[in-house]
Amino acid sequence: MPLIGFGTWDLQGEPVKESLRVALDKGYNHIDTAEGYRNEAEIGEVLKSYNRDRLFLTSKVLPTNLHYDDVLGSLDQSLDKLGTDYLDLYLIHWPNPAISLRETLLALSKLYESGLVKTIGVSNFSKYQLRVAHKISDVPISVNQVEFHPWNREQDLLEYCESNDITMTASAPLARTKVLQDPVINELSEKYQKTPAQIVLGWQIKQDVVTIPKSSSKDHIESNFEAVNFELEESDVDRINNISKQEKVYQLDLEDDIYGIPS
Q1: Residues 151, 142: Cα–Cα separation, whole Å
Q2: Where are the domains of the chain?
Q3: From 3.30.70.890, 3.20.20.100, 1.10.150.20, 3.60.15.10, which CATH number describes the 6-173+209-216 domain?
Q4: Is the model more confident about 113 or about 261?
């Protein structure tokens, strides 16, 4: 699983197609999408021009579609829209307490065993929810994709993932650009002569956290990718880990449209 990928949340229509082409031409080979992003068809159009075997493609099933048959149906639709016969990774986008997690994981196990998905995982699961999923799943839980950035470090969750061979993926890796204003990040930006975004992404990569920044700017897409080409000193990783400000940039509101189109 490539340590840096291209996130596509909130990108639809021509913008997602244009941005994805820039990313793929730059060298990204990990693409992150979701049923709820409503952009799988556009992504599929772009992928027709690229070698599928060289790509790592992730999608996610909506929390409203976690019953057994609904999971199978959602995967079929995603594959059709993306123009592929398998996903490298398929995630439960958000936990849904109204639907049995065991039922959902049984469906994911079937998809895994059939080869339609190469690996399975979860997204936005707490440490407790991840422990439950890890315990009852018939196949390995490979990934937990969660909000992770210098203002929301999820240290206990990260340690649990590391101890159980689960990869953490950072969604909203730049805190929707908010964290780029942090004084420590900007001091390190000057020290390394890197952009604030590169500092944050480099901090995630240094900890073996997969990061999936999203941008519609050609310059930012290309610049973000260069975060793989430098390494923060351990003392500077510690400086970021000691930032006192803690703030999340998204929350799941079950009464809001975000439940149908989650972040």
Answers
A1: 25
A2: 6-173+209-216
A3: 3.20.20.100
A4: 113
Q: Exposed, middle or buried by CB within 10 Å (0-12, 13-18, 19+), for 212? A: buried
Q: What whole-number distance in Å separates Cα of residue 213 and Cα of residue 171?
A: 8
For 91-102, what is each residue's pLDDT tens digit? Answer: 999 999 999 999
* Cβ neighbours, 10 Å, residue 217: 11
Catalytic residue among 37, 90, 112, 160: 37
* Catalytic residue flag (residue 37): yes
Closest CA to 92 of 47, 53, 36: 36
> Whole-model pTM above 0.85?
yes
pLDDT, averaged across the chain: 94
